[in-house]
Amino acid sequence: MLNPGYGPLGEWINGRDAFLVVGPAGPRGGFLTDKTVVSIDVEESGDAAGNVEIIGSLAVCLEALYSRVATVIPPREPDVAKLDSIRAKRFGPDEQLEPQASFTRAIRSAMPDDGVLVQA
Question: What are the structural domain ranges in the chain?
């Protein structure tokens, strides 16, 4: 999940015009309200206000979208290194609050890879 409250990530988000969400976009609670959000899902979400919803097979829709966009927009350098740097700092020891960070690490290590944690 993108957390715009973390300064460097918020700055990165503010520098973008659009976001692609694969799967249910869900309610964003004011988050990305000034951005174009393109969502690709197998069913309608019913929340398409200000968004672009593409309904269909995810693989087919992604391939079609990529083939169209690639003919119109020239490729850019990916932001992977920048995002990796933001992520490393965000989850580095200087940004962690204890004991919550230790609890989170313990829960993540105990959960199976395909597990879902539901907080009641």
Answer: 7-110
